[in-house]
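Table 4 source record.
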Amino acid sequence: MSGSAVVVGGGVAGSSAGRALRSRGLSVTVLDKGRGPGGRVSTRRSESGAFDHGAQYFTARSLPFVDAVGGWAQAGVAQRWVGQFGEVDSEGLRMLPHRNLWVGIPGMSRIVAHQLEGLDVRFGAEACGLARARRGWTVQTVSGEEFGPFDHAVVAVPAPQAAELLGTVAPAFAARASCAKFAPCWSVMAAFDGSLGLAFEGLRVRSGSGISWIARDSAKPGRAAEPPERWVLHACPDWSEATIELPPDEVCGLMMRELVGLVERFGGVAATPVHLRAHRWRYARTVAPVGSPCLHEPAMSLSVCGDWCLGSRVEEAWTSGMAAAESVLASAAG
């Protein structure tokens, strides 16, 4: 199959759509506003090591995604995360049975980078306009560049951005994107001059505190095991909503005080942070998806996808991207 396609957004959904289209012979250009691959599976690098500050892991349930993850494992870009995981609430701590958790190797962003291999990827290209004329689709960026024309278009950005891009060319899709609802999340990346001495790699906190999850990021497979010990802290949705406009440094201080309390509660060891940063995820978790794998208009050969279509799990974003690609391919064949 011949033809060209542009994918706006290079996260899990966009990269899976782009790879599927390329595998069927289309020339694919991916435009992403970030500095590198990732989206919600971003990996932040620092002088103290790397942090998975977005999605912490992923699971595979549907057969197509199980097959895809198996391929990632064979390619050496994903591995099972085996460790001690717990959950704490008002009744105390419970260690959880081993789950089938997967992570990217050497960081979560590697799975997106792997899917983007062989595609024409333009990072730092933030789309601000999408237009269709007789010659095809064109995309304008905030820096004044124009890409195109393309035969097909896939929009794979967060719902609020999709609504803006689609407002003129596909107002019905823009309206549906506007209906998706999200919960924010503060993510804190902390490295310490010594071990915290905790007996788990991940802990789900359900006791009404600001913190909802902590993970020893440096204990994941494929990570640098030498010091400093690196942890990622996620805040719960309500707390994140209430503090979303606070300065990151202030958020770091608030969440570190809670972490100190958890360390003391579970017999850990006090340690001094040598690196401390916070990242604000405004659209971290989809709480009200649109309920369709993707949105597609055959007459325009336009597909829209993302984790806001089915849900915020990595698998749901991948499934949405694959559905968008299949819709485009069906239009191209028909």
